Amino acid sequence: MKKSYLLLILLIMSMLVIAVACDDNKTDGNNDSNSESNQTEGNEEESDEPVVVKVFKSHLGKGTIPESDDPHVQKVMEATGIEYQLITTPPGSDPAEYINLIMAEQDLPDILRPIGGVEQTLISQGGALALDELLPKYAPHVWEQIPEEAWKIVRTASDDGKIYYVPKVFMIPERSPLLRKDWLDNIGMDMPETTEEYKEMLVAFRDEDPNGNGVQDELPTSGREFGRWMDHLFAMFGVAMWEGYPEWDIYNGDINYAGTTENMKASIEFIRELYQEGLLDNETFLNKGDVWAAKIDNGLVGSWYHLPANLNDNLIIMREHSPDVEISGMSLPKADGFDGYITQKSMGEPEWMIPKTAEENAINALKLLDFYYDPANSEFIQYGIEDVQHEVVNGEKQLIPATDETPIALGMLNFTTQETMDLRIENSFEDEDQQMIKDIFKTATKDSRRIAGDGMPISVYEGYPDIQSHKLFQEYMTNIVIGEWELERFDEFVERWKEAGGDEITKRAQEWYAQTE
Amino acid sequence: MIHIFEKWFRRTLSNTQTRLVLILMLSICVIILIVGLTSYNTSRNVLQKELNAPQQQMLQISMNHIDQYLKESDKVAIKLSLNSYVSEFLTNDNQISHRNISQLYQNLETLIKNTAYIHSIYIYSTDQKSIVGLPQGFSSDLTNFNDSKWVSVVDDFVEDEMVLVKQRFVPNGLKYEESNVTLFRKVMIQGEMKGVIAINLKHEDLFANLIPTDGFNSDSMRFIVDQSNNLLYVTKNNSFDSETLDYVMSNVNEGKLDEIKYQENILLTNQLQSSFTGWEYVSVVSQDSILAKAKTIRNVVFSMSLLALFVGIIVIIYIHTVELRPIRRIKQLFSMDEEQMYHRDLVHLERLVSDLVSDNKQLSRVIQKVRQEAITKFFYDIYKDKLKDGNELQDKWQMYFGKWTEDPMIIVMISMDNFYKWKDRFSRQYQSVIKFAISNVMTEVLSAHWRTVCVDVEQDTMVIMLQHREGKVELKNHLRIALSNIYEVLGFTVTVGVSNPRSGVEGIIPSIKEATIALDERLYKGYGKVISYKDVSRSDTQSTSINPIETEQLMEFIRVGDTQESIQRLHRIFAMIEQNHSDPRTVYLFLETLGERLMHRNANRQQVVTFVNQLKTMELKEILMLFIEKVTDRTEQIQQLSQSKQHILCQKMIDYMNAHLGDTIGIPECADSIGVSVSLASQWFKEETNETIYSYLTKLRMEKAAQLLVETDEKISTIAFKVGYQHENSFIRGFRKNKHMTPGKYREMLKKQANID
């Protein structure tokens, strides 16, 4: 009897001990997750535990978020000792809203890709980590590959002149005027050389059923509401335009807002003509992205402005209607009295930044980033893991097309040159399409140039959100184009713009520009 | 087989204990079962009811909530349909009014932003086949509107119906679709249908209320079905598959709790129908999950009752095989009739046992008696020395006197003094009672210190066997006390003879003999005495006998009728006996002979024996008195007789004979002497003397011869001649016949005797 009591007591005691031990483990775990990023000394304590770096990146393609046992995650961890944990916006939610939300909740990742101007908020509020000293030490490849010019621009983004983000570097133009070459062939015309020829072509597109379906459903050219994504029409007149937002370039000998220039007025006049003649889709200013894209995909649009590197998805749908679809880049037609060019912003746009809250894990975040910028890893970064991201066909690596079910392999390198773009084209397009896309880039590159305002921080707009949002410009431009208002009211706009703070902003921009020289 | 079992069962049931235990166990079993089943059913019903209320409430709340959402959405749709921009959009032929659509965009955006559960809103113009919506925007062509397939809903409206709620798939971005509920509302302008407003509701928000709160058991689910039996929403659950769902959907009834049996599972279902949408809301809970506890109760109860039954069976078997084994054996002993046994075995057994006990009482009484008699018999046998067989003796001794020890035993003979007188005094039927009284008195006095057994052996004699038990006591004193008690109580005396102590059964006979001898000593010692053998034992067995001449002389006096002289002679003889003090047995023998002779000639044999026998229990004095009385009788009788003629004539003949003994006389001479015929003389003589003339003459001649032989020394032949015999041989023959010896021997014997004297 006595013996069994003893046993019982022993049993209870041992259970208690185990329970306490479990509790200890639990609290340890909680500590980790609570302050994962502010525990650098934790590395030494738990050397066998992988270092986790949370990476926020929106606008990912198809696929699922990889788990920690994902081969790509594992491979990166083998190379760096860092396990990346990819965080993205939940399906259906707006990325800009979401990132504002996580900022408000102080639930920031270790490293993030800012969107919607969030970088300026972080910098101005002191929430961004200065990387000047860390970059050369922990991310030497990043530091060395990105040209000094770009770093210079990055430094101008803050008052204290420090590097708060790693910039995107795009050495070639991303956007290009696009043209349905097959339509051109169908109506037997050549590439337009001048704005007049361009207009003739559009008329032919409108009237001669280039898509051959027997219905006059063609929209010779189209854009989106607020005049977005019809930059080619402005570019012909030398307007610095970025997805419908007027940019800053040298006008009248100094850097100026393109929206108030004569070039702008001339382009609006031209566009107004096109609109009145039905050459510009009359629903343009009602088009939201989906409908606009659907119009292009459904083979209704002949000339438009978009990202040639992303054409693949469009091509697939277009070919359902017209198998012979052929797209080509359009050299900007010459407008009389204007030097047209395609606006190119090559550097200065923020790509990666580290929140101050993640300072303790910053080294690891930079190490991870450096892994991607190391040319030695370019092959892995390009192709990923065999049988997961790519397969070997005839001795050549080929990327496996992503599906909804395949895990996404994190990419952090945004350093585009002619070579990397060619590589990307080769990897994401069918063989027969590759040359077409490369040609588009060639044409675009020929016409494009870096604007003077490339890399100008949005801080110049501080205190003038209406001007920053280009609402005033959009209102006048839209109403003039659709014929509600007379063209003359453009001058009214210029006046109002200047009164609303345009002069002050122009002053700031010119100061900034002076700084960069 | 069945028959055997039935028989066994009946027999087992006939056993009272088994029946008792069986009834008890069965009733306990039944009680447990009833209690258990009642509590199970009650708790199940209560649980079901209790559970039904929240289930129904939850369902009602959810339904109301969803209906509320839908009604709100409908309000939004109504508001929109009255919106001027919308009516302009629907009625204006030239729709592409930037101002109008921009305003619509703004309105829609405000509505969507302000209404959390609205995902998107579309307005479809039936006239223009164009659509405006958010977030997609305006499209004059349906093909450019991503999500325009629903427009066929226009045909689905039944006449007056204004609102339709449908589930469909709504694109989420360009690539994905998701299940969604859309509210469609007709827009009527001037009585004409101009368009449809579609409000896509956020699926998760709409049905958020259906999702059970955390921790609720996962064996439940809720789902919604629309009018065309499409499943709109199912809460996540672990336990129900789609087949169950289909089954429930086809079986559920509205408004009340239902039990639906499906694949071994009882599902408790609840159904409500929304009056607004016509959707059916169903909640399903597996009864098992609710009643898991109640089932435990049920199982415990069942196992308890089974256990009770089992224990009962064990007890029955135990009682039957172990506890009741003695009773079974008793039954076997009684070899009871099986058929009889079935009726109340124990009652039967009780009757049997009571019978047995009363039988036993009777039997023991009989045995007591028989034992007493057997002991008496045994003792009598020993007394009579009939038991020659040693073994038989030992056996019987062991049987009757097993309790007696090896210590020496004493035999005491009790004899009634003057038995014949005693016998006359008490009538025959009282004699045994008196003897019993004697034995009682003796036992009473002696049993304090002795083991006693008292046996009636002969008419006058009882034997007591004693074995000393404890205490130092004098037997004689106790016997004297006993004798005095007897005298006081019964009024007569008894004499006891006491033997020497002797061990073992073998000693009994010698002891009896000793006691008898001691008892015989009464002759001298008188009545009411305690006589020990050791006091009377004689060293010499040689006894002095009375001279026969004394007797003859006595007889002669009697014959002649001389009373005086006869009594004197008797006194003389008794005095001699007293003086000799020889062995009483010899004395009794002598006295018996004497008594016999004293009897009258005419007395029959019986009288003689009786007279003689009585002497044995009498003391000498009393015998003398008896004899004197007898002699007196005789002499007086003789005196009477001799006076008669006949007697005188016969006396004359005897005188003649005596005078002519030496002559050769015969009967004729004797008859002649008195002058009567031979025959008459013979008759008379016979009557007077009870002898024939011739034998009397011969007797006289022999008496004379004997006298001569003793008193003279004459030759036998001379004596023969003197007493009338011609030849010596015939004399010798006659003498021997008369005196049982030859004359020579007679002379020799008597002479020897005379020399001694």
Automatic annotation (TrEMBL), chain A:
Spell out the Polar residues composition-biased ranges. Answer: 30-41
Alphabetically list the UniProt keywords.
Signal
Keyword Signal carried by entry: yes
Identify the InterPro entries for this entry.
Bact_solute-bd_prot1 (IPR050490)
- Positions of region (Disordered): 26-49
Specify whether Metal-binding is a keyword of the entry: no
Q: Which residues form the signal peptide?
A: 1-21
Name the chain's protein: Extracellular solute-binding protein
Q: Which organism is it from?
A: Aquibacillus rhizosphaerae
UniProtKB/TrEMBL annotation, chain B:
The species this protein was found in = Aquibacillus rhizosphaerae
Q: Which residues cross the membrane?
A: 20-40, 300-319
This chain belongs to the protein called Helix-turn-helix domain-containing protein
Q: Which UniProt keywords apply?
A: DNA-binding, Membrane, Transcription, Transcription regulation, Transmembrane, Transmembrane helix
What residues does the HTH araC/xylS-type domain cover?
A: 651-749
Report the Gene3D superfamilies cross-referenced here.
Homeodomain-like
